[in-house]
Amino acid sequence: MSIGILVLAVLILAAAGFVLGRQRALATAGGDPRRLHSLPGHYGQFTAILAAVPALVLLAIWLLAQPLAIESRIAPMLTADSPADRSLAMADVRRISIGLDLLAVSDRLSEDAVASLSSETLAPRLRQVGTAVTQVTPEALSAAKAHRTMRHTLQIWMTAAVGLTAATCFVFALLRIRPDFRARNVSERFVMWLLIAASLVAVATTAGIVLSLVSETLHFFRIYPAREFFLSLTWNPQFRGGSDLGIWPLLWGTVYISIIALIVAVPIGLLTAVYLSEYASRRTRGWAKPAIEILAGIPTIVYGLFALITVGPALRDWFAQPLGLGASSSSVMTAGLVMGIMLIPFVSSLSDDIINAVPQSLRDGSYGLGATQSETVKLVILPAALPGIVGAVLLAASRAIGETMIVVLGAGAAAKLSLNPFEAMTTVTVKIVSQLTGDTEFASPETLVAFALGLTLFVMTLVLNVLALYIVRKYREQYE
Amino acid sequence: MTDAAAPASPAIRDGSLFAPDAHTRRRNAAERRFRAYGITAVALSILALIVLLVSVLGNGAGAFRQTFIQIPVTIDAKIVDPKGNRALDEMKKVTTIGYGKQLEASMLAAVAAAGVATDGLSRKDIAGLLSKEAAAGLRGMVLENPDLIGRTITFRALANGRIDGYFKGRVSMDSAKLDSNISPAQLVLAERLRDAGLVTVAFNPQFLLGADASEVRPEAAGLGVAILGSAYMMIIVLVLALPLGVAASIYLEEFAPKNRWTDLIEVNIANLAAVPSIVYGILGLAIFINTLGLPQSAPIVGGLILTLMTLPTIIIATRVSLAAVPPSIRDAALGVGASRMQAVFHHVLPLALPGILTGTIIGMARALGETAPLLLIGMVAFVREFPAAPPEGFFSPASALPVQVYNFTQRADPAFVERASGAIIVLLVFLICMNAAAIILRRRFERRW
């Protein structure tokens, strides 16, 4: 926890800097804040920022660089055949090295005692202090000892460097303080950089998503032919290799379920929106709209459970079995129906916004020509709102494609290309979950295929979203 | 030159103007039909909501009540403390098997004392009415309070899951005949014991406070670890997402120049809000676990992923409420000599705060119910130990409420359906509280300019 103490020390120094900087500014101005360029607090902020930020940045860089530096020195001590072996051995060394620290504390060992520990009896003792190692080889132990010594030396250097930086900057800041020094500009520029950095987190997230998906997908295509992935019609992963990993059965399941969901959600959602915005009294609207929006706030796992324990068995007993279409309670119909319910508020609230954005003058014109209310809706409002509604439907489709929990619990796990809606099928998202939560090795194609599936999903939803946002934006401009 | 064709004149009416003609009747019928469609759609949506809630609540209400068997147990020092020195380390060596034997004996004695006929059930069958978890409960109680040794206490033991199911209507005599875990004779005995007052169905605090239990002991499964894990993640989300989101929105709304770069950021945020949640799970697995080496199934990883997912929601809400503060406020602040930064932080931000907090709470409520990304980072693992207090607890394995629901649904014993629905009730109660807080905040503090 010495890093925590170091950070705390720097922060205390910064707090002291705030008080001292303030006082010094007032002192240089002869106790009259009006002679200062900035408020006294700004001088305090300036000192605090200078005391804390460079030191903490140094600390962060050091913490990132230290393991790399140590491991590049340790690596020659280990004999390993492949990079994967090497990283496993390195992880072992790291664990033992930290275990030695724990052992030294719990058994009160001196440095010499730690250095003379032998590898034979060490593993059980390490396990006792909570280090998960199965066996300790002499090679790993000597590497771990070197690792530990280096770690400790570097730790001392780090403390010294960070402390020195903080102190130097602190003194430098205090010396800079004069009545005409523009402390406010400095502290505000710093805050501005913080704000910009925060807004870049969103960009970094997208970059992280794209990078991790693309790099692992490329990795996948290096060990599994892309042709097979995009063109094969079977999905049949095997634990021992030799799997068929064709995406089409999964895409078909995804699209089929989404279509059923949209067939349920779009008419109901649209008619709900029309009724609530054009017909309903203020009172009806007042309770019905929030009630429907409750559906949007319910977590998808709840819908999943609803599909699993209520809708699935009901559909099986009342439709699938009497009609002789199947005996499975998880089916495309189950997942599609429940997902449709989930999408109703999504479609209705988006359409509601769009219908309300249609100018009143269009309605008045239509009524003036003698149209009834429903004719106005059908012939004037809906055509005028059509682009927006298409956008809403596209957004709903993207939501349906990316939905996971409902299909995990409601659709089944069998990858099939079938037209029967009462049969269990599976989707891209279900397979991402099952491939990544299984016990397969991470570098196997059976696991890596999940990243290729994830990328497919990401691209599909991205295209739908961009298209929808573009259409909705275009449409809004039309009436503004 | 009047060669423009005159419009075809409609048929001349020959009836009263007060009697609608066929065309008008048709139009009016269409109007009524359309109205009926609308009402049907609204009714269907509300019906779906009601069926959903009734199904979950109906299935889950039973999880809060549990069947207990109340028996006097004499804690024999010879068994639980063979050395007789009350040293905790020594006593911990006695496993639940030792306590189980004691419970078995107490159970038989209690049944005999109550004068209930056992119809020749074997000792094992009678003790089988107790949950396998009961011995562990007794052991925990004794280790916590060694003074109990040698005394006779009234122990409230969990009943076997099948007995519990029988009193809740899940298990019947017919199903017990086919069940290797319970026999109809045992159910008859349970019923007699209930009449004798030994078996009761009562509120079960362990469902909310206890840890998860193994696949064959649904009666002992609790949500404690999951609730704690979810709480840890919400703390992380609040601490990270609120400042980051507010800072990003202030920059974009108040300071950012209108150029291609800020446009890119804005489109980016709009898209992030619509990225499927499972993709965030893949991101977390690839970046936080595989690259940065953070531990699997730890709340810190879940918290970070949920932070990234919540950020767009918070940013969008914050920008709306910042934009709603009228420019006159900024102008007035600038007019009396504030810098732009001071105008924002001293005047605009406090006025926008209710809207920001409302958006944050709603974003967190959504994060609380999120399941899919947490499945990918290993939160499906079976976790029995409570995580430590923060900050170490952020790095130790934990579960999360929605993931616990998923876990329960993956188990074979039908008793877990009740547990899963019960967990959802707990989840929904938290969501309702959060959303109510958001609504109250909006009603009380939001200002219309």
Automatic annotation (TrEMBL), chain A:
Residues 251-468 form the ABC transmembrane type-1 domain. GO terms for biological process: phosphate ion transport. The chain crosses the membrane at residues 43-65, 156-178, 190-214, 250-274, 294-315, 327-347, 379-397, 448-472. InterPro entries: MetI-like (IPR000515), MetI-like_sf (IPR035906), Phosphate_PstC (IPR011864), PstC_N (IPR022182). The keyword NADP does not apply. The keyword NAD does not apply. It is found in: Cell inner membrane; Cell membrane. Belongs to the binding-protein-dependent transport system permease family. CysTW subfamily. This is Phosphate transport system permease protein. It comes from Cereibacter ovatus.
From TrEMBL, chain B:
PROSITE patterns: ABC_TM1 (PS50928). Coiled coil: none annotated. It is a multi-pass membrane protein. Keywords: Cell membrane, Membrane, Transmembrane, Transmembrane helix, Transport. It comes from the Bacteria. SUPFAM superfamilies: MetI-like. Its main location: membrane. It is found in: Cell inner membrane; Cell membrane. GO terms for molecular function: phosphate transmembrane transporter activity. GO terms for biological process: phosphate ion transmembrane transport. Pfam families: BPD_transp_1, DUF3333. The chain crosses the membrane at residues 34-57, 231-252, 264-288, 300-322, 343-365, 420-441. InterPro entries: DUF3333 (IPR024573), MetI-like (IPR000515), MetI-like_sf (IPR035906), Phosphate_PstA (IPR005672). One of its GO terms (cellular component) is plasma membrane. Residues 227-438 form the ABC transmembrane type-1 domain. Belongs to the binding-protein-dependent transport system permease family. CysTW subfamily. This is Phosphate transport system permease protein PstA. It comes from Cereibacter ovatus.
